[in-house]
Amino acid sequence: MISCSFIFSPGEYTDEFHELDGKIDAFATSLAGFIGVDRWVSDDGKSRNSIYYFDGMDSVKELSRYPEHLVAKANYKKWYLGYQIVVAEVVGSYGDGYFTHPSQPR
To answer: Which strand (E) or helix (H) includes residue 82?
Structure first.
C-alpha cells in the first residue's frame, strides 16, 4: 500500500480552487487502486494533511498526470502558503479496532 500525504498551509481559496479540488478528489477516488483518504487539521488550523491511500504506484502516477492536477500544481501559490508531499510505502497498520481507517485490512 502507498500513502500520499499532501501537507499544506491554506491561503485564500477561490471558486477556481474549489472546482479543481473537487475534480482532483473525484478523480483520485475513482481510480481502481484507490483505497481511502484520511484528513487532518493541526490544532491551530494553520496546517492540513490529506493522506490518500492506493494499492500501488500505478494509481499514484495516474493521479500525478491528471490534467486538472497539473493545473493546480502549476498554480498552487494562488491558494497555498506552502506545501509538502510525502509518498511512502505502508508496511503495517494496527490498532484496537476502535477507528475505521483506510490502512486496515479489508
So the answer is: strand 80-89
